[in-house]
Amino acid sequence: MPPSVIDHHQDAELSNNEAKEFLLSLPKERGWRTSHLYLFQNFWCQPKEIQAIISLQKHFQAQENDLLVATIPKSGTTWLKALAFAIVKRTHFNTSLSKTSHNDHPLLSSNPHDLVPFLEYKLYANGRIPDLSTLFHDQEPRLLATHLPFPSLPSSINSSDTCRVIYLCRNPLDNFISVWHFLKGMRPKTLPSLSFEDGFEMYCRGVVGFGPYWDHMLGYWQASLEQPQKVLFLKYEDMKEDISVHVKRIADFVGFPFSLEEEKNGVVEEIVRLCSFENLKELEVNKSGKSIACFENKSLFRKGEVGDWKNHLTPSMAERLNKVMEDKLAGSGLSFKKYVPV
Ligand code: A3P
């Protein structure tokens, strides 16, 4: 894609005609839940998202201490949003799930996506240019989220020394399975069906929302090496292995470390329980409603396990995706535990 096309269109929001013309100029591939995905700024996305992304890149102004949760879809975004919210707001609300005390913690009555909104899916979606000073009145830090790759973040985030970005990714085998389950039911009947094998093929070629997956990871990985005080790079599997350690890491990173007294009083464990899959999944608010347009809240909580790919991928599929990732991540220092085909 010629850079001049992107640059030109980043200067202004697109009129309908311009938008159509612009879309026609982009490489496209068969989509997962829309007819096509388009390669915009070197990642795959849907037309609606492109409009929102152009708008937020133009209008969003980072503020000192903004905290951005960044992920590729189906890597544990909902979990990380809940944790970030619970950690940062822990002195405002009761984090205990004890039945003996009344608890009005927002995570018990709101989906994490309502508490930590997406820039592209919520705040700047559908042509909106939000007044963030009203929306986030008196809130510091502002908690925001995105699926954008690092190089496409609004320039005011990239140039700020004080914004923080927490990035979460996941081993691609489980990520693919999670994407597959999430999107398969959403494919409109008007589109030709997409088989599991087709989806796998697309994923291995990097054709998935905000992918290629490896580029997404490598962008944030590199940034975390260059600016460790700004970008914290996390993996879902590590969090599952020892979530308490990660809650403390996140708290340190965002500048809200736990005091000795908090640790003694079990606040870390309370937050772990509050944000756990088991707790969030069973809440009324997460069993119904749609906090992100088009997606049922309940579909955000499927299994929450490491290694579910073993129930779905053949050994040769697992081997192939492992090999793709090994090749793509070679020399970067980033790796995932080897998932040996069974
Ligand atoms: P599975 O489909 O493997 O179950 P995202 O939030 O980015 O959409 O990611 C969704 C994945 O995270 C799903 O994985 C979902 O079950 C899992 N998940 C959601 N909430 C979780 C939590 N509190 N703890 C761990 N995993 C969670």
UniProtKB/TrEMBL annotation:
Keywords attached to this entry: Transferase
Record family assignment: Belongs to the sulfotransferase 1 family.
Domain Sulfotransferase: 65-333
Lineage of origin: Eukaryota, Viridiplantae, Streptophyta, Embryophyta, Tracheophyta
Record protein name field: Sulfotransferase
A Gene Ontology molecular function term of the record: sulfotransferase activity
E.C. numbers: 2.8.2.-
